[in-house]
Amino acid sequence: MTTHDHPSISKLAAALREAGMTTAADGIRILDDEVRTAAAAAAALGVEVGAIANSLVFRATYGDEVRPLLALTSGAHRADTDVLARLVGADAVGKADPAFVREHTGQAIGGVAPVGHPRPVHTVVDEDLARYAVVWAAAGHPKSVFPTTFADLVALTGGTAANVAS
After folding, report:
1. Quick check: 157 and 115 in contact, CB under 8 A?
2. Element holding 149 (H helix, E strand)
3. What CA–CA distance (Å, rounded) separates 138 from 61?
4. Contact between 59 and 34 (Cβ < 8 Å)
5. What is the pTM of this model?
6. Tens digit of pLDDT for each residue in 2-26?
7. Residue 88 is inside which H or E element, if any?
8. Structure confidence at residue 4 (pLDDT)
9. Are 162 and 126 within 8 A, CB to CB?
10. For the chain, what is the largest distance between any 2 Cα atoms, rounded to a whole number of angstroms?
């Protein structure tokens, strides 16, 4: 199987097409190397690090229940877990391990796409991404990215636009 045929990339492309975002689906790029960080992705694409939408999966705790939370964060700064907890009404938000990320997204850390997961994941989209005409997000595999816009990320994910940094 080539990277182009990877099931997570195919799921993302199908989700983008279903949402009417054919330009984004057609723009999926397979890079020579894995780009598991915003800095690596920005360097590979020749764009500012802030134009990279990091897909960060967290464990959001609500009493005894733990749910996934996806924060699409500008690569220019870090998401603040206290801010995220307040935004989603969670008791706490903390780091998710690779098994939790794969369970809830079907994808590996470093390649988590905004959609194409087994079930929808509550998503917060960093308002800082609105500064960029084109935003690059992971396409379901650590070597894949796709171009989109802040507005399309919010629409595609059904996410909440918010300031996620402290």
Report:
1. yes
2. none
3. 25
4. no
5. 0.93
6. 445 788 899 999 999 999 999 999 9
7. helix 81-88
8. 55
9. yes
10. 44
